[in-house]
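Re: that chain you flagged

S.,

Sorry for the slow reply, it's been a week of failed gels. I finally had a moment to sit down with the sequence you sent. For the record, here it is as I used it:
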Amino acid sequence: MNNLHYLTNKKNFSWKSFVAKEKKLTYFKNIFECIKKQQKQGITIYPNKKDIFNAFHYTAFNNVKVVIIGQDPYHQPQQAHGLCFSVPIGIKIPPSLLNIYAELKSDISDFIIPNHGCLKNWAIQGVLLLNCILTVQKGIAHSHSNLGWEIFTDKIIQSLNYYQEKIIFLLWGAYANKKKNIINPQKHYILQSSHPSPLSAHLGFFGCRHFSKTNKLLTINKLKPINWQP
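Prediction finished late last night. Pasting the structure tokens below so you have them in one place:
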């Protein structure tokens, strides 16, 4: 658990306490100093500051049952709101999310493809929608990959790995699959596939049945299945 500032008592661990400790560290301060500098230069950053930590706002630490790992936020106007793969209601559904819906339609018999892309309902039920990089410059994908966000989000994953048991990690694509190295498969479940992007969904995401498999594992462990209807 290298350099992780954990509380010793799981009962006292929360996202709020964790973030409070990380905010005191140099790497974390540097992230927001870089963001402020870019904004002073007229660069637009997504998501809005109030939405950056929404994944932790909607999914409390003790309620996490499933983790879906994304890379970084959408980089076009009004798309990013702090939940990976999700966009606010009223915003056009991105291609990767359309493919996620297509797989859900194939996998879950009563799933109805919605007319929006907001996944907040998943988050409330215990699905942590975690981007590993939490901010991005307008119009430039992966533009904040060097700010230090992955130090923070790797610690998030390690915290779940260390304190919790039987979480289901859905790793889609090469980037997310790298996180397998910091997850203990003796304590947790890891489901892997290709990314739902139009470029790679046909390489293993379509037909992976991760949503029904997730609910089966939750049921086995006497936990309430996820209602995947957004």
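What I noticed first: The mean pLDDT is 95.

Talk soon,
D.
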